[in-house]
Amino acid sequence: VTNGGKTTLAEKLKKMLPNCDIISQDDFFKPESEVETDERGFKLYDVLDALYMDEMVKSIHNWIKSPASSGVVTEELQNTCDNLKNTEDVYILIVEGFLLYNYEPLNELWNRRYFLTLPYEECKRRRSTRVYQPADTPGYFDGHVWPMYLKYKNEFEENAINVVYLDGTKSQEELLSFVYSDIIQELKKLRQ
């Protein structure tokens, strides 16, 4: 969901987890000149064709091949509790974005999937406080952004993709605590 807190959550997790990197889907948007426009004049940014998805997959595969050489910094972890003992050989990649689970080549790569949700009114309110380049045109949220969110959410739900849903109306601290704890549990399972 747009403006659900994906990037904020990912950045906070990176500071808390050992050997952690982030790849953001936003870094793979095509230039505005390459993004299609619909019959209403809306730029179609909320579709897979607006992104260089092949490049994103390549970046993820490159990271997987050589995470230790990715430039991950480990010294400044905010949380050095017992949960993270013996993790020097563990590397974590957080891939954050809004259309991750609708692109088949990525689906085989996930260890864990999280999906932030927001109700329509809160999403629209948050979106209205952000400044985009190019700026949202009048009616863009209702005419394109929200319908695409619903379409893609329904699509991956129909494909029975195993996802942990997160309520984006909860505080950043609650979301961070839940996801951090969940990741620690996953790391413990991998160590067994």
Written overview of the protein:
- There is one protein chain.
- This protein has 192 residues and is mainly alpha-helical.
- 40% of the residues lie in helices and 9% in strands.
- It is built from six helices and four strands, in the order H-E-H-E-H-E-H-H-E-H.
- It has helices at residues 6-16, 53-65, 104-107, 120-129, 140-158, 172-191; strands at residues 20-24, 92-96, 114-117, 164-167.
- The protein has a two-stranded parallel sheet with strand order 1-2. Strands 3-4 form a two-stranded parallel ribbon.
- Strand 1 (20-24), helix 2 (53-65) and strand 2 form a beta-alpha-beta unit.
- Helix 1 (6-16) crosses helix 6.
- The protein starts with 5 loop residues before the first helix and ends with a helix.
- Mean pLDDT is 88; it is low at 73-81.
Please describe the structure with a list of short key phrases separated by commas or semicolons.
single chain, 192 residues, mainly alpha, 9% strand, globular
Total count of strands: 4
H-E order: HEHEHEHHEH
Indicate the mean pLDDT. 88
- What is the tally of helical segments? 6
Classify the secondary structure makeup into a structural class: mainly alpha
What sort of overall outline do the alpha carbons produce when their principal axes are compared? globular
Neighbour order of strands in the largest sheet: 1-2
Q: What Rg is obtained from the alpha carbons, in whole angstroms?
A: 18 Å
N- to C-terminal distance: 34 Å
Stretches where pLDDT falls below 50 for ≥5 residues? 73-81
Largest sheet: number of strands, sense, barrel closure: 2 strands, parallel
Helical fraction = 40-55%
Strand content: 5-15%
